[in-house]
Amino acid sequence: MAITINIYYSGKNQNALKFAKEMISSGLIQAIRGENGNLRYDYFLPMDYPETVLLIDSWQDQSALDAHHRSPLMYKIAALREKYDLHMKVERYISDGNVSEHDKVFIRE
């Protein structure tokens, strides 16, 4: 079962956006996406919260996520979070990979 983590980074003076841009320009995102078991690593801008950036981070399983947390990349991410003085709200979800027949009625592919 895949594990998806939503991380809401918040700061002042557009620091969350600056953080995300530096994650991209530094190559950290590409390195994370290349890690074994990474399924998704994407930033989004919530419309109602201009000082927040949402990271949707998804991993194949807990062991892949644990390996990511032990990687040297995590120290670089933590240093950037400190640089931009960001605060985080974290949500964790486990996917069963199924969409019910009832839900499919509302999904347009």
Outline the structure in words:
This protein is an alpha+beta fold and 109 residues long. Helices cover 39% and strands 28% of the residues. It contains five helices and four strands. It has helices at residues 15-25, 28-33, 62-70, 72-83, 101-104; strands at 3-10, 38-44, 52-59, 87-94. Strands 2-3-1-4 form a four-stranded antiparallel beta sheet. A hairpin with a 7-residue loop joins β2 (38-44) and β3 (52-59). The longest helix has 12 residues, at 72-83. The chain starts with a strand and ends in a 5-residue tail after the last helix.
The description of the largest β-sheet is:
4 strands, antiparallel
**End-to-end distance:** 23 Å
Helix content: 25-40%
> What is the number of strand segments?
4
Unreliable stretches: none
Which strand order spans the largest sheet, edge to edge or round the barrel?
2-3-1-4
User: What's the SSE pattern?
Assistant: EHHEEHHEH
Radius of gyration: 15 Å
The helix/strand class is alpha+beta
The tally of helices reads 5
Into which percentage range does the β-strand content fall? 25-35%
Tell the overall outline.
globular
